[in-house]
Amino acid sequence: MTILSEILTFNENFVHEKEYEQYATTKFPNKRIVIITCMDTRLTELLPKAMNLKNGDAKIIKSAGAVVTHPFGGIMRSILIAIYELQADEVYIVGHHDCGMSSIDTESIIGKMVERGIDKSLFKTLKYSGVDMRQWLHGFNDVTKSVKASVDAVRNHPLMDQNVPIHGLVVHPDTGKLDVIVDGYVNEEIMQ
């Protein structure tokens, strides 16, 4: 049995037994917040529990490292839509200790791409097209600095409402302990 067939079999029963009813909510976040966090599997259930969130409380956007890398990329677009269209009033950028993005080896990733059939010559084409694979796939060395940089990117975005608090936190993936890196209510320079 494939993973897809397992999912579909479970889903058929889930719908038939009306288990979805316990998750009923609207498209608007009850706590009026949007969270940008890492796609790390340890955070799937831990982070909402550590933040006292239940289904419907927050818009949660996940990406590798919880990094806002491009001012007009998908993550920033989602944040702006959450604020201007979906009634979010605060932004929380939540990185975590022991993040895989802190140990990214770009050369290794490129090697794995080639092993899976990506033509090596494509990387030359990308380079001449202005795509720096090392920059595009880069990680970070310090999660605190990464969170601060993402907070700055969101806070200083030309389309961001300056009255929206932008918070930065780091969560421990084993315990759920949250450390405040940036308190968005203190609309000054980033805290140390």
UniProtKB/TrEMBL annotation:
<dbReference type="InterPro" id="IPR001765">
    <property type="entry name" value="Carbonic_anhydrase"/>
</dbReference>
<comment type="similarity">
    <text>Belongs to the beta-class carbonic anhydrase family.</text>
</comment>
<keyword id="KW-0479">Metal-binding</keyword>
<dbReference type="Pfam" id="PF00484">
    <property type="entry name" value="Pro_CA"/>
</dbReference>
<protein>
    <recommendedName>
        <fullName>carbonic anhydrase</fullName>
        <ecNumber>4.2.1.1</ecNumber>
    </recommendedName>
</protein>
<keyword id="KW-0862">Zinc</keyword>
<dbReference type="InterPro" id="IPR036874">
    <property type="entry name" value="Carbonic_anhydrase_sf"/>
</dbReference>
